[in-house]
Amino acid sequence: MPVPDTDLPRPYESGWPRATRAAAQAFWDWHDTLRDAAPTSERVLDADCKAADAGERLRLVPDAVSEAAYEACREHGLKRRYLAAQVHGLKHHQPPVRYETGADLKRFLDRWVVPHGRLLAGLVPGAGSLKRATDHLSRGFFYTAMVTHLPQHLADDRLYIPLSDIEQVGTSVRELRRASVTEPVRKLLWKQSIRARDALAHGHPALTRLSWRPKWRLKFWWLGALEVLSEVERRDFDVWSEPIALDRWHTAQVYLQTYLGRATGRMS
Q1: 3-class SS at 97?
Q2: Which CATH number describes the domain made up of 96-268?
């Protein structure tokens, strides 16, 4: 079965005010460059990790990208070690990607999306003091993509769902590759959806402590992630037959909840 072209927007990829737009783009360019990097040796990764922490040239990242990211850190008082952490995390992002347990996956995320999220949060007034909440949000958004992008992840030989979860429900990586929406596969994806919802719920304090403008933007992405997970459930956890996307009705609901609804949204 062909891989559906899932192209959901990424939280905080756009919509930045002029004062922080260039810095946000620099941090996204850094993250995306590493994400798309060809597999390389651990020696190169270790050297680039040290170079990033020192603000020096890297082998894996073009000079224009690294210089923009370093400048963004300088301008906004952010730590380059968050850039370096992502280089370190790349060791566990090169295919084949497998994680034995949920704890193993979390350790990877804490060196991959969490430092990226901290850099972006550092551009949001008031969010710098909410590291624990924003860390949970970074993981929650990734867990959501882990469900919706599963076919593409399998095609790229990057399986983020813990192997222990796969074994626990009585299915296999082979069955996932066959795109068979069996009862064990539904149980597996339901469990990953719960993992995502739980992380998003733990990130909720960020919605209550930010000023109105960044709170509105974060609330939109937060509710949107929950609605995407609900869409997966409405499709009975079939993420293969067509791309996961929200139709106009459900997108309108997210906008309406963002403006008028309760910040808690629908957690289950």
Answers
A1: strand
A2: 1.10.600.10
